[in-house]
C-alpha cells in the first residue's frame, strides 16, 4: 500500500504536464476596460495550440449575465472555419480582429459602443481535449455634455451669491473644476468650492469678484467646459427709488383730479345752455307790424267808399252779405248773439260767430292796432 500513492501522484502529474503542453491562452491586454460611448474597443484573446490538439477549433465570445438566474448571451461564435453573430443587439457592430482566428488570435472588436454594452465578456477557446477561457470587464461611459454656467442670487456688492456649473449628461463620477481666467486669475478668498456639486459659494462679494470664470466638467472618458462673465454692481439707491415712486403716484393723482374737474365743468355748462334755450320770456312784447297797420287803413278806406256808393237799388245786396268786415264793439260782446233777418225765405245767411272778448292790454301785447270805424245802422247806412 505504501507504493500505491506515489504511483497515483505520478499519473496525475503526467496528465497535468500533458495538458500544459497543449492549448494555452496568452494573458495580453487589460482585464478591465473603460471607454466612452460611440468609441471602438478591442477585447484581447490570444491562444496557442499544442501538437496533440487535433480536434476542430471552436471560439465563443459571450456576455455574462449579471444575475445567476439568467442565461449568458453569445455575442459571436467561430466554428467550422466560419464566424456567426448570434446577438441581435450587437449585430453588425462586432467582428473578429483576425480574418483567420485559428492562427491564434481570437480577439474581437466592438464598434459604436453604447451604455448597454457594459458588462463582463468571456472568451472561450475549445480544442479537444483542451478548453481555456478568459474574462474582461467592459464599462461604457458617457462623456459629460457641455455644462451650463450661471450665477445664483443677487450679483451686488455686499451680497452672498453662488456660481453653479451643471452638466446634463455624463457617467459618474463627474468632477467640476472652477477657475478665474481674467485679472488676477485667482478665486475670491471667501469662495468655497464643491467639486462634486459644481458650485462656488461667495460671501460678502466685492467689486473684485467681477471677471470671467471657466468651469470644466470631466470624468474618466472626457471633459467639457463653459464660460461665465460675472459683473458685481453696487447696490441700488433704495431711498431714491421710493421717492421717485411716491412722486410718480402724486403726479398721477393730480392729473386725474384735473381731468375730473374739467369733465364736471363741461357737463354743467352744457346743462346750463340747454336750460337757457328752453326758457320762455313772457315780459318782452312782440315787435309791432307796420304791414298790418297799413292793411287796416286800406280796408277802412275801401269800406267807406263802399258805404258811400250804396243806393236803394243795391241796398239789398249789402243786406244779404254777412258783415264779416265789421269789428264788434264791447257792447256786442255783452249782448247775446242774434241772427240777421233773411231777405228771402229761400237763402239763409249764417250770422258770424262772436269773436272772443280780448282785453285792450292783451290786444296791444298781441300786436293789434285800434282802428276807428264809423257806426252803421242795421240797414247799412252810416250814422
Topology summary:
Blueprint: H1 4-20, E1 24-26, E2 32-36, E3 41-43, E4 46-48, E5 58-63, E6 73-79, E7 82-85, E8 94-96, E9 108-110, E10 119-127, E11 130-141, E12 148-152, E13 161-166, E14 175-180, E15 192-194, E16 199-202, E17 211-219, E18 222-230, H2 238-278, H3 290-308, H4 315-320, H5 330-334, H6 360-365
Parallel strand pairs: 2-11
Antiparallel strand pairs: 1-4, 3-9, 5-6, 5-10, 6-7, 8-9, 10-11, 12-13, 13-16, 14-17, 15-16, 17-18
Rg (C-alpha, Å): 66 Å
DSSP helical segment count: 6
Average pLDDT score: 76
Largest sheet: 6 strands, mixed
As laid out across the biggest beta sheet, the strand order is 2-11-10-5-6-7
Strand content: 25-35%
How helix-rich are the residues, as a percent range? 10-25%
Going by helix content, strand content and strand pairing, the class is: alpha+beta
How would the global form be characterised? elongated
Question: How many β-strands, per DSSP?
Answer: 18
- Uncertain residue ranges: 1-21, 290-310, 315-326, 339-347
CA(first)-CA(last) distance: 204 Å
